[in-house]
Amino acid sequence: MKKPAAEAAKIEPRRRRRPHPLGLAVASVVKPMVGKKGFLDVDILARWPEIVGPEVAGQAIPLRVQKPRAGSLEGATLVVRVGAAAFGMVLRHSEPEICGRINAHFGYTAVAKLKIELGTLPPPRPAPAPPAPPPELTAEEYARCEAVSDPGLRDALAALARTMKSRARG
């Protein structure tokens, strides 16, 4: 016996279980928050050091994007906070280059000018701790690796043994 059309419409299609990029999930959560600051994309915040370079990124942070008024021919203004007035002057003189880098990153004229505010910057992130050196092989493990005649395979086995020991340790 066939099901009525109304019942068939109520059945949801099967969902396919496949991995989804994490960036899409994060962007859907973060976009409303950064949209309040005028940012069209989270990219300018996430990739600020890559876009403007580490020297500028260490001394200035983007705060918000101010859209031009309706009917205005001016472009958007990026408000940037600097920690020192002297660097604000340096930033003002390199404004065309910085705007060019931002626009080249996005592929269109996203920012026409900068507005520089003086204020306190967040403390820099501490440098990540260097990874621990791989553990040394015991004499027995070293002898097992040396028994292999192929030098490439021998080195690969020794590296694998060190990796396995470091995983067991950590």
Q: How does this structure look, described?
A:
Helices cover 48% and strands 11% of the residues. With 170 residues, it is mostly helical. It folds into 2 domains: 31-118, GMP Synthetase, Chain A, domain 3; 139-169, no CATH class. It has a 3-stranded mixed sheet with strand order 1-2-3. Helix 8 packs antiparallel against helix 9 (151-169).
Instruction: Give the end-to-end Cα distance, rounded to a whole number of Å.
Output: 61 Å
Residue share in helices? 40-55%
In CATH, the architecture of the largest domain is 2-Layer Sandwich
What would CATH call the class of the largest domain?
Answer: Alpha Beta
Topology, please?
Layout (H helix, E strand, L loop, with lengths): L4 H6 L11 H14 L7 H4 L1 H5 L1 H4 L2 E7 L10 E6 L2 H9 L1 H12 L6 E6 L20 H8 L4 H19 L1
Parallel strand pairs: 2-3
Antiparallel strand pairs: 1-2
Helix pairs in contact: 8-9
What keywords describe this structure?
about 170 residues; flat; 9 helices; 2 domains; mainly alpha; 3-stranded mixed beta sheet
Brief write-up:
With 170 residues, the protein is mainly α.
